[in-house]
Amino acid sequence: MDEMIYDLGVYMTPSQLENLKIIIKTLFNNDLTKFELTASSGLSIIIVNKYCDCVHQYYLSKDLYKKVLDNVNKLNQTINHGFVKFLSSDDKLQLITYEKVEPINGDNFDTTKLKNDVFKTLKTMKELGISHGDLVLDNIGYSKIDNQYLIYDFETVKFDVKESNDLYTFLKSIKFHVGF
Ligand SMILES: Nc1ncnc2c1ncn2[C@@H]1O[C@H](COP(=O)(O)OP(=O)(O)OP(=O)(O)O)[C@@H](O)[C@H]1O
Ligand SMILES: [Mg+2]
Q1: Which stretches of the chain are DSSP H helices?
Q2: Which of 2, 34, 71, 168 has the greatest count of CB atoms below 10 A from its CB?
Q3: 143-154: per-residue pLDDT in tens?
Q4: Domain that holds residue 66
Q5: The pLDDT of residue 173
Q6: Residue 29 maps to which CATH number?
Q7: Is 72 exposed, middle or buried (0-12, 13-18, 19+ CB in 10 A)?
């Protein structure tokens, strides 16, 4: 288990490491075959549950956890489509569980469907004054259950905004991925 955690390449304080171990013990009873760990920015760790359509995200800082949870709650109250579903949260473990999607990798995505799905969501977001703040393809995944591309990464979401660069960022990210 230690090797699996060190392979993430994330610097963790002893208490953060301890908390991650408690999470793994609580969720999987330390059975390493039941999950995979990934980290990207180093601010959170994604625990992919192999036995349910869900992922658990452990936010290393309490402030980040609270900010994300607040954004997720506000989103839930205002928009009911286009975002990865929130399933549960645990304040003590700083853990949020979301519906699992297939993240976009390389250029193996359906550009037309991706644009259609995200444009619909962006239209509603504009009407409601919501911006995502980092709408790159790294933060979008495909849900087989919903047959739809869904947005995640709730850290930079803003409410009551008049302007947003989400559409620009999204289209630029598609161009970057397909290479033209
Ligand atoms: N609901 C999900 N289903 C499947 N994979 C997910 C889900 N949420 C996150 N991931 C995976 O975990 C990675 C990190 O998640 P997220 O973007 O929320 O964190 P981050 O730390 O803000 O990352 P970054 O700074 O790179 O945007 C994603 O790029 C994706 O590969
Ligand atoms: Mg991200």
Answers
A1: 2-6, 14-28, 62-78, 111-128, 166-178
A2: 71
A3: 999 999 999 999
A4: 2-99
A5: 95
A6: 3.30.200.20
A7: buried
More confident residue, 165 or 1: 165
Residue 48 CA to ligand 1 center (angstroms) comes to 10
Nearest-CA residue for ligand 1 atom 19 is 153
**Same domain for 92 and 21:** yes
CA distance 180 to 174: 9
Please report the atom of ligand 1 found closest to the CA of residue 100: 3
The owner of tokens 């259950």 is 145
Q: What single DSSP character describes residue 52?
A: S
Last residue of a domain, one of 75, 99, 123: 99
Query: Would the CB of 45 count as within 6 Å of ligand 1?
Result: no
d(CA 39, ligand 1 centre) in Å: 8
Q: Report which residue type is found at 153.
A: D
Q: Taking the CA atoms of the chain, what radius of gyration do you get in angstroms?
A: 17
Separation of alpha carbons 173 and 77, rounded Å: 28
Mark whether 88 and 171 lie in a shared domain.
Answer: no
Cα–Cα distance for residue pair 162/148, rounded to 1 Å? 27
**46, 101 Cβ separation under 8 angstroms:** no
Per-residue pLDDT tens digits for 72-94: 999 999 998 999 999 999 999 99
